[in-house]
Structures are given as structure tokens and as C-alpha cells.
Write a structure and sequence with these properties.
CATH class of the largest domain: Mainly Beta
Largest sheet: 5 strands, antiparallel
Shape: elongated
Low-confidence stretches: none
Helix content: under 10%
CATH architecture of the largest domain: Roll
Structural class: mainly beta
Number of helices: 0
Distance between the termini: 26 Å
Mean pLDDT: 92
Radius of gyration: 17 Å
Number of domains: 2
Order of helices and strands: EEEEEEEEEE
Strand order of the largest sheet: 6-3-2-1-7
Number of strands: 10
CATH topology of the largest domain: SH3 type barrels
């Protein structure tokens, strides 16, 4: 069963564990079933590709692989430092995410 995650596509996150620890990037996609996210410029892997219309040469291409969401921490929009994420009912009655460090609402 899928659960609610603390990050969404478009968020800026920092890697807090693994080979890419300390790197920051934008979330390109989130896989809720596997609790994994693809982050721009993080966890690059080499992939062999056949020649095709887009890449006529073929060869080895570097691309991002998914990282487990437990190894990611959201960057606070106010201070620019990593923070935990909370959820509370907003002014319109919907659940909104907020940065625990600054109390700032996350868009």
C-alpha cells in the first residue's frame, strides 16, 4: 500500500546518506509505490544505449537513477537549509506541508 511522502516533484532536496551525501538537486519524479525519487544530478549511472533516431551514435550515457526517499531531506524555502516536513490544515481547510525549522508553508 502506498503512503504519503514528504517530498513531491519539483522540490529542492539534499541527499543525507549514501555515495552522493551532501549533494542538492531538484526532484524530477517520485515513485510512490517504491518510495523512491529521481533527483537532478544525483546518483548518476552509466547506461549502454543502442543507436536510435535521437542518439544516432549510441554508446554509454550517464543518467540519474532513483534514490530512496529516506535518504532525502527537503530544503527549507526560507533559510535554504535542510528541514523536516510537517503537515497541518491550512487556511482553506486542506492539508499543507510546512518546514518544521522555519514554520514556512511549502508550495
Amino acid at each position: 500500500m502506498a503512503q504519503k511522502l514528504h517530498i513531491k516533484k519539483g522540490d529542492t532536496v539534499r541527499v543525507i546518506a549514501g555515495n552522493d551525501k551532501g549533494q542538492t538537486g531538484k526532484v524530477l519524479s517520485v515513485n510512490v509505490e517504491d518510495n523512491r525519487a529521481v533527483v537532478e544530478g544525483v546518483n548518476l549511472v552509466s547506461k549502454a544505449t543502442k543507436p536510435n533516431a535521437k542518439n544516432t551514435q549510441g554508446g554509454i550515457v550517464k543518467q540519474e537513477a532513483a534514490v530512496h526517499v529516506s535518504n532525502l531531506q527537503l530544503i527549507d524555502p526560507k533559510s535554504g537549509t535542510p528541514t523536516r516536513v510537517g503537515r497541518k490544515v491550512g487556511a482553506d481547510g486542506k492539508l499543507v506541508r510546512y518546514a518544521k525549522k522555519s514554520g514556512e508553508e511549502i508550495k
